[in-house]
């Protein structure tokens, strides 16, 4: 039973995909509205697929070239194999497919949410959240199935068939090859996130500046030539991009825990692989509990809180995962001390591992709560931006920047406490397993996140179709909550990236054969500074790309208003496809340079200056990237909801202000500045952090200092078992000693 337990992991992934298919079929069966609504939804779906085809064409060249290089590099060192190229391709394909799954259901759920909003907010939430849950469950299901299946194959090929040591070189090779899967997933995620972010924000900025500010028409008015491109952007950026993003995060977190788990000698019933297998099982278990929790996200009447319903589902998934983790860890890990030969050979118990999982889930929940506070309507941060909008555009910008910077304080303190607490509980393995615990409920987190863009599209279709005011009001309620959940999802992702990066960092140190990163050395300190700079230049490139593409979009929208008579009188249709084409070409062109920096920087530094300087680079990227990610995500989210607050009316200095007022125009400017912050460069930070660490992990055997670090193995660890009887009960005591 115990030896075959590993096969449970891909089975849980298959269950997830079956549930996803059932939910997807239910969404598809819902009423798609009248012919006009279906036509508009068709334009959005067509534009989204056109972007994906163009993106996949470019990425196919990258995947083929990278796979050839990886296959060649796999022949150069002992602890790798040309099979890493196959692993890389599978990871890349599944990452792209994860994004497609989300986008495909989102472009079906949007118009059906609009139709449901004609009836009630309850029905609209049901359709939009079910659409989001299809994406969340599908992404997590693919990750669990992919990682679980490949681990079974590589474990049997490199360890079982050779009679290799599960704590030694054979397992190291299996996990190095498995790291190719994570590299493929994160590479596609970066390009999808950056490319999708550039697309959506170029369209959004162009639509806002010309349509709302210059022409004075609503955000999703059918007369605005950029409105279809704007709605397409919600799908390619916030849905397809986010799907690939969290797929990569999920995989990287599991990998980091498995790599560190190899260094733990475990006298368990699973052939010694329980510490390696545990994060996979936690991920699969979290997927199942997330599925259960989706059925609790519902409201009974229109006056109920949508945010409270989403929070309820989220907390149920977290609490179920905590409870089940206790029994799972107690079942899988052995009694007595476990030793990870890293950081002074730290010893811990299985309850320490459980404590680390709990800490990870608490950190994730707190990060989401803090992000919600800084970005939600009605809270002090957003209200302060609203108030500062009354004195002009400049003070709105100042207010948003200030809130974004302030919002880094509590999350960083929470992260620091989580890292230190999980380390005390179970060493560096505890830090990694804390990240795995946090990511266990990814299916639920992504379902909550993905429902927002669906609701946003639904509101756009309602506006373009000229539906009654109450329909748009219902979709606006969902959209406003979606802005907050999108921000909390990004906060969750950046927190997991920080924990995962530290675990990957620890794994890299071991494989690179170094004992520590000494910043007292000039070259290492230089690497630290260069690493801290990379998130800034990455953000600069991404934001500048949005600016250039937005300029093209603004000029095109102005041209159409000028040259096509009758648009403003509804007598002529805008040329929507021209705007879609501008965003598509710009995003494909501009995504290359930021992606190249993330992939090439660690390789150049590693091969030119050695493993310790590369370690300094990774540390700089991680710390700087986490801060930049939190700052940009929260500032952008707060600006966005400050603008949306004017749609219902806000009181500033005793006077009510609405859409069209000078204060509202100032808030539109702030939202426009915040758009590339929260949807392009900000969310890309977590991928940048993990991707550079994974690249370093892949090249570590090539730049190793020769194995200065001592790993735990059965040859240098003594395991002594004593059996006694107390009150007639058999008691086993296991003592583990590392021989130095």
TrEMBL record:
Entry keywords, A to Z: Cell membrane, Hydrolase, Ion transport, Magnesium, Membrane, Potassium, Sodium, Sodium transport, Translocase, Transmembrane, Transmembrane helix, Transport
Compartments where found: Cell membrane; Endomembrane system
The organism's place on the tree of life at top rank: Bacteria
UniProt main location, coarse: membrane
InterPro entries documented for this protein: PPase-energised_H-pump
Molecular functions per Gene Ontology: inorganic diphosphate phosphatase activity
Record membrane topology: Multi-pass membrane protein
Cofactor requirements of the protein: Mg(2+)
Ion transport listed as a keyword: yes
Reactions it catalyzes: Na(+)(in) + diphosphate + H2O = Na(+)(out) + 2 phosphate + H(+)
Enzyme class: translocase
Transmembrane segments: 6-27, 58-77, 83-103, 124-155, 239-260, 272-295, 315-333, 353-374, 409-436, 492-514, 526-550, 591-610, 616-635
Site (Determinant of potassium dependence): 486
Activity-regulation annotation: Requires K(+) for maximal activity.
Subunit structure, interactors included: Homodimer.
NCBIfam families: PRK00733.2-4, PRK00733.3-5, V_PPase
Family as reported in the entry's similarity comment: Belongs to the H(+)-translocating pyrophosphatase (TC 3.A.10) family. K(+)-stimulated subfamily.
Listed name of the protein: Putative K(+)-stimulated pyrophosphate-energized sodium pump
Source lineage: Bacteria, Pseudomonadati, Bacteroidota, Cytophagia, Cytophagales
